[in-house]
Design a protein that fits this description.
Layout (H helix, E strand, L loop, with lengths): L1 H18 L3 E2 L5 E2 L4 E12 L2 E13 L5 E7 L3 E2 L6 E5 L2 E5 L7 E2 L4 E7 L5 E11 L17 E7 L4 E3 L1
Antiparallel strand pairs: 1-2, 3-4, 3-13, 4-9, 4-10, 5-8, 5-11, 6-10, 7-8, 11-12
Length: about 160
């Protein structure tokens, strides 16, 4: 009898999820249909104390976002004038707004950082990750059920060569 009850609850649970539009994530969480899969791609060029980072954020959808925030951190402190979309979170970390991200497309404006690195290290590690999806109001409830592609890490050697991520 208990096996029949368990099967009944399992079937009921699956049917309820399908009828309510719910989508189960790989880890068993249920999404409410507000999913935006973000991915970050770009390049870092480091030479003679100058670090240039170019970044584009893609929204693979299915939900469009009015904005998102990305954290760009470095293995060393950086200085320089920041674009209006960015604020300094720490000597080696910035948080930048992406602007609108329509579903299935790239953000309208790329992020371009022209920074200086003190101390002349031979290499700089640049890390990029999403820190917020949707408006600053966290009640938007949009989730990224595939967060692995919104975290990037690249090692830029002091060669002047572009290193892609």
């Amino acid at each position: 009898m208990t096996t029949v009850l368990r099967m009944g609850f399992l079937v009921f649970g699956i049917a309820s999820g399908l009828l309510s539009g719910g989508v189960a994530a790989a880890d068993g969480r249920e999404a409410d249909g507000r999913e935006a899969d973000l991915g970050h791609h770009g390049q870092a060029v480091y030479e003679g104390g100058r670090l240039d980072v170019r970044l584009r954020t893609w929204n693979h959808g299915p939900v469009s976002l009015d904005s998102a925030a990305v954290r760009v951190s470095f293995s060393v402190p950086v200085t320089g004038t920041l674009p209006p979309a960015c604020i300094r979170q720490a000597p080696s970390a910035l948080v930048c707004e992406t602007g609108a991200l329509p579903a299935g497309s790239v953000g309208a404006r790329p992020l371009a950082l022209a920074l200086r690195v003190g101390g002349a290290p031979d290499e700089v590690v640049v890390e990029v990750r999403t820190v917020r999806m949707g408006a600053a109001d966290v009640s938007s409830g949009t989730r990224d059920l595939n967060p692995d592609n919104d975290r990037r890490r690249v090692l830029a050697l002091d060669t002047g060569d572009p290193y892609y991520f």
